[in-house]
Design a protein that fits this description.
- The structure holds 2 protein chains of 2 kinds.
- In chain A, 14% of the residues lie in helices and 20% in strands.
- Chain A contains 2 helices and 6 strands; from the N terminus they run ββααββββ.
- Chain A has a 5-stranded mixed beta sheet with strand order 2-1-5-3-4, with no helix packed on it.
- Chain A is globular, with a radius of gyration of 18 Å.
- By secondary structure, chain B is of the alpha/beta class.
- Chain B is built from 4 helices and 9 strands; from the N terminus they run βαβββαβαββββα.
- The N and C termini of chain B lie far apart (31 Å).
- In chain B, 46% of the residues are buried.
């Protein structure tokens, strides 16, 4: 099956945007992917072997987290896996209910 | 160095004004070159943080996947992201840093003061992993000449 690699991880796949990896389940595909490209292991998984929290994985258009069998989900060669790190942020860490002039907001807040 | 056409630069700043007092967000499509990330198109995205949109943003992964597909179809890559800081400096916050995972990408922040776009800065996320990543100030080169010549061509 094809796995789409996001921009920041392509340095670990020799620049490949899409890689073809064999496997009967998502877990097998990931095992073969990290065997083929060992540096991806640390990028995608924490030391306990779980997908890092900011790494989103979609099997076709389905979020892997919400599939009943998760990593044990069977895959076909025509399926596509997309790895997409999350993108988020914002002006203040202490946002919810906090004053914009909260001094613990962030490093630039004392400027306000 | 981040290279961007004036029309795109202007559009991302206008996006911040439109969503004020909420944060806007979007994706920069283009190519990474030895001279830096070169933006060829910007794509607006929805901010899913409706609970705290004045100081938070989040792009839904499903939308990000669609944008990535769009980029692939155009022969482009995701080279960065932009968002606004309503009534807040155009500097990355601890939240921006903690939530930044696209190493090698540019993170553009526009301060929007009382509804008007003010300073726009870019920060390049460098490093090799989550443990050694850092934001570096990234100069922005705005391609005005090409924009002007395109305008003349349309006249």
């Amino acid at each position: 099956m094809n796995i789409h690699i996001p921009t920041p991880l392509r340095s670990f796949t020799s620049g490949a945007e899409t890689v073809a990896v064999k496997g009967g389940t998502v877990a097998e595909v990931f095992k073969n992917l990290t065997t083929q490209y060992p540096e991806l292991q640390q990028q995608l998984f924490s030391t306990d072997g779980k997908l890092r929290s900011f790494v989103n994985v979609y099997l076709n258009d389905e979020d892997l987290r919400y599939l009943p069998e998760k990593e044990a989900t069977s895959v076909a060669t025509t399926d596509e896996l997309t790895i997409i790190p999350s993108i988020a942020g914002g002006a203040c860490r202490t946002g919810e209910g906090a004053s914009r002039k909260d001094s613990s907001c962030c490093s630039c807040c004392p400027l306000l | 160095m981040l290279h961007i056409h004036y029309k795109d630069y202007d559009a991302l700043r206008a996006h911040g004004e439109e969503t004020y007092p909420h944060e806007c967000c979007g994706v920069l499509l283009g190519k990474s070159t030895p001279e830096g990330n070169r933006v060829q198109q910007i794509v607006r995205a929805g901010n899913t943080r409706t609970d705290s949109a004045h100081n938070r943003y989040n792009i839904a992964p499903q939308e990000l996947i669609k944008i990535q597909r769009q980029a692939r179809g155009l022969g482009l890559d995701i080279v960065g992201f932009y968002h606004s800081h309503p009534d807040h400096p155009a500097q990355w916050s601890p939240t921006d840093f903690a939530e930044a995972h696209w190493i090698g990408c540019s993170y553009v922040i526009t301060a929007v003061e009382k509804g008007k776009a003010a300073i726009t800065n870019s920060f390049l996320l460098t490093g090799t992993n989550e443990e050694d990543k850092k934001f570096e100030d990234e100069p922005i080169e705005i391609d005005v000449v090409e924009y002007v010549s395109q305008q003349k061509g349309q006249a």
